Amino acid sequence: MAPYYSLEKIKELALFAGDTLLVTRRARIEAFNEFGFSIEDICEEIQLLQPTDFHQSAISHKNDLPLDSYRKLVLSQVTGKHHLTYIKFQILQDLIVVSFHTSDY
């Protein structure tokens, strides 16, 4: 299965964190608590995604829209260890919605 959204478009929208990026509440909390990450750090991780990091595309149970999931090892600034992390995306017009969580959740 191929991604629904273009990774290039996701990266483009993630460049403008304040204007085009909406990070879920859970993602902000987990990114900070587990990784020591700010919104800007999440944006940097998005820029590092490669097509080979693609995991799956599915329909969100919350709004019936496509949801692309990528997974990669991310280094935690809190623990100093790498964690398998899922970064999920939806694009709503020119707004990217991001979920960011470890596989431990």
Supply the key terms:
5 strands; 105 residues; five-stranded mixed beta sheet; alpha+beta; YaeB-like fold; 36% strand; globular
Give a quick precis of the structure.
This protein has a five-stranded mixed beta sheet. It is of the alpha+beta class and 105 residues long.
Describe what this molecule looks like in 3D.
- The protein has 105 residues and is of the alpha+beta class.
- Helices cover 30% and strands 36% of the residues.
- It has four helices and five strands.
- The chain has helices at residues 7-14, 17-20, 25-35, 39-47; strands at 21-23, 54-59, 66-75, 82-92, 95-102.
- The two termini are 24 Å apart.
Overall outline: globular
Secondary structure: helix percent: 25-40%
Strand order of the largest sheet: 1-5-4-3-2
Tell me, rounded to a whole number, the average pLDDT: 88
Query: How large is the count of helical segments?
Result: 4
Number of distinct beta strands: 5
Cα radius of gyration in angstroms: 13 Å
Span of the ends, CA to CA:
24 Å
Q: Low-confidence parts, pLDDT < 50 over ≥5 residues? A: none
Strand fraction? 35-45%
Q: Can you summarize the main beta sheet?
A: 5 strands, mixed
SSE order, as H and E? HHEHHEEEE
CATH architecture: 2-Layer Sandwich
- In the CATH scheme, the class would be Alpha Beta
Domain module count: 1
Query: Helix/strand-derived class?
Result: alpha+beta
CATH topology title: YaeB-like fold
Layout of SSEs?
Elements: H1 7-14, H2 17-20, E1 21-23, H3 25-35, H4 39-47, E2 54-59, E3 66-75, E4 82-92, E5 95-102
Parallel strand pairs: 1-5
Antiparallel strand pairs: 2-3, 3-4, 4-5
